Structures are given as C-alpha cells and as structure tokens.
Amino acid sequence: MATALERPFRILVIEDNHDLAANIGDFLESRGHTLDFALDGLTGLHLATVKPLDVIVLDLALPGLDGLQVCQRLRRDAQSPIPILMLTARDTLEEKLAGFEAGADDYLVKPFAMKELDVRLRALVRRSLPEESSVLQSGVLRLDTGQRKVTLDGRPVDLNRTGFCILAELMRRSPEVVTREDLEHVLWGDMPPGSDALRSHIYGLRKALGNQSGHNWIETVYGVGFRMQEFPS
After folding, report:
1. What is the pLDDT of residue 34?
2. What is the pLDDT of residues 116-162, one digit of tens each?
3. The pTM is what?
4. CATH architecture of structural domain 10-128
C-alpha cells in the first residue's frame, strides 16, 4: 500500500499567469499528481472550499481577491487546514511575513525551479500528516502534536504549520540549542528556501507567543541556532 507521500497529491493551483500555470501543471502532472486550476482569487477560494485537496499553490498577485485575502478567508472563515504554498515576485521580509501572518505555510519567490516546487509541496503534505498524539509541556505552554493545538495558560495560540513544527522541535529538544541547519532540515529537507524563510517563521512564532504573554519564549544563540527560554509557571 502506498504511503501518503508516495500516492499522487490533489493540488489546486491559483495563478493568473496562463503560461506559468500551464508549466506548473505539465510538470506536476508528469509526476502523477491531479491538478485543478483557478485564474483569479474568487474562483480559487471557491474551489479550495469544495474540492478535496492535499495542498494549494497560491499566487500573491491575483485579480479580484489577492493571494493574501484568499489565504485569510480560507483560514479565518472556512477554517481550512489545507497546506498553502504562496508564490510571489516580492522578495522583501515584510511581504513574506505578511504571507505567513495571513496563513501561508511556505513560499517560493519567482522565478523558481519546478523541482523545488515539487520538493516543497511534498514537505508541506508530510508536515500535514497526523502524528501519534503526544503532549509537550513547559510551564504554561502546552503543545498537542496529535490535535495540532497550542495553548498558553489555557488560551489557544494560532500558529501555521511551519510555526507549529518549529515550536514542537524546540520543545522536544529543550533545553538544548537547536541549530539553524537542524530546523531547516526538519522543515524543508535538503532544499531550504534561504536564510530569510526560517528567520521570518521564528519572528512570527515569537510574535504569536509574545502577544499573549509579553515574554520572549525563544532565545537566539548567535552563530548557532535557537532554544526555548524557561517558561514561567
């Protein structure tokens, strides 16, 4: 029996550039995947809520609803857990952070290699697979791997999949320092997207935890990586 990562994926591509959408379709279909396409944000939002999907490829600049709006509506209104990889021609840290805060799980900057797109989609699907349930706890912070829930002093913390995976790895290995390379390998295997990606996700994770407590939960060990701070009880 094929595992979840060996079987073909059901992928929705929301991209208004016909040539790029066709190239993505040709490549991913050659890998055996099943694809649906939308050329605007409103159609993409509709398909994302009615189709059984494993992952979504979402362009940031779309007619009608842009990619950020589509992402926000999927997460906020539809409560969709489907992994989202955002495509963008914008390479600033602020724009990447905006995508992550809207609910995207990963991003690729145009132009990109199709092989990298395939690797990133596999990583997103792998991270979305249910785990055997276990609970990690540090003071008032509680992380349930099976239910994919994080609470801080009993209040839910909203994290995307990447932020959740980073926090789980830091908590599992606490009080050790987790190197940047180890975190990047957990998230993206052998094809990390670049130094800004991990930095962006760490920033978003700190912000999500700090907004509820005012405490800096993640310590940067310069030149090495990151570790959990001791949590107040």
Report:
1. 92
2. 899 889 888 887 765 555 888 887 888 888 778 899 888 988 888 88
3. 0.67
4. 3-Layer(aba) Sandwich (3.40)
Q: Where in the chain is the domain with CATH 3.40.50.2300?
A: 10-128
Please provide residue 130's backbone torsions phi and psi, each rounded to the nearest 5 degrees: -65, 140
Class at the top of the CATH hierarchy for domain 135-228: mainly alpha
Contact 33, 60 (CB under 8 A): no
- Listed in sequence order, the residues at least 6 apart from 227 whose beta carbon sits closer than 8 Å to its beta carbon are 170, 173, 174, 175, 176, 177, 178, 218, 219, 221
Tell me the percentage of the chain whose pLDDT exceeds 70.
Answer: 89
